[in-house]
Amino acid sequence: MSLDSPSPDAGPSPDASPFRNEPTSRDEAPQFVLPLVVRIEKAAPPARTDALETAARAVLVMLSDERSLGEGEWAQAVRDWQDARIRKVVRRARGAEWRRAEALPGITVTGESAEVRAFPPVPLDGWPKDLAKLQVSGTELDDPEPPLAVDPTAQPVIWLNPDLDMTAGKTMAQAGHGAQLAWWELSDKERDAWRAAGFPLAVRTADPARWPELTTSGLPLVRDAGFTEIAPGLTVAVEGYDRVGALPDQVRRPATWS
Fold first, then answer.
1. 152, 239 in Cβ contact below 8 A?
2. What are phi and psi for residue 110, nearest 5 degrees?
3. Distance between CA atoms of 231 and 180, rounded to whole angstroms?
């Protein structure tokens, strides 16, 4: 994907991808991470696909929030984060842990069964205490029913590499990366249209036969640096992001973040 000539709040204009494994100029900047916390109650865990999609929308909500733009209270942290590697870490919470997380500055995005709270970026070693103590492991989730087929001409689709086996937490971070790369590709008008529609999107595992086409057709691609779980390589392709300015009514979502 190209990161040429972004708008001031679109993200950086680097000399290299934020996901490349070899050292780049991004590594010379202070490193930040975007914390994401998914609510997983023992008695009612969210469906996996809904959690993935809600995490991707949470990243978009954070990027588009007025506090992340211009002179907003989170804007400098967001700029510092986007100037370096755009790391995301997903942790889980339930009960009192979730209530403490919700008390911290951030935005909770609600899906059909999932709740994901995004927080302003923090230094790699500067997590708030109530977030640092939350577990990264244990975010494995299932879909009670197979996800429905999706149409990339109707909404953006974040396609997952069918050859990878990632935990739900890792996959949520990858879906967030894909949504962010698509966001960087859009004009301000297209971003406004996507946000007004409630950031409709889908996350699905690609058909193995189609994956080579998706990764060679000029779509935004996530190339994981291999810091956790998997070896460096392609994880996500985003299709349909270029049509968000003309989203059909049936894919629009109510605004469900706070």
1. yes
2. -110, 130
3. 21
- Could you read off the pLDDT of 188-245 as tens digits, one per residue? 999 999 999 999 999 999 999 999 999 999 999 999 877 777 878 899 999 999 988 7
> pLDDT per residue over 162-178, tens digit each?
999 999 999 999 999 99
List, in order, residues 6 or more apart from 221 with CB less than 8 Å away.
Answer: 1, 181, 215, 234, 236, 237, 238
Separation CA 32–CA 29 (nearest Å): 9
Is 89 strand, coil or helix? Answer: strand
Q: What is the dihedral of CA 215, 218, 222, 223, to 10 degrees?
A: 70
CA distance 191 to 39: 27
Look at residues 197, 199, 179 and name the one whose alpha carbon lies nearest to residue 36. 179
Exposure pattern of 164-202 as b/e (b: 16+ CB <10 Å)?
Answer: bebbbbbbbbbbbbbbbbbbbbbeeebbebbbebbbbbb
Q: Give the Cα separation of 5 and 15 in Å (integer).
A: 12
Q: φ, ψ for residue 133 (rounded to 5)?
A: -80, -10
Helix %, strand %, coil % of the chain (to 5): 35, 20, 50
Q: What is the pTM of this model?
A: 0.88
What 3-state class would DSSP assign to 65?
Answer: coil
Q: Which residues of 218-235 are buried (b: 16+ CB within 10 A; e: fewer)?
A: ebbbbbbbeeeebeeebb
Go through the chain and tell me how many residues it has.
Answer: 258
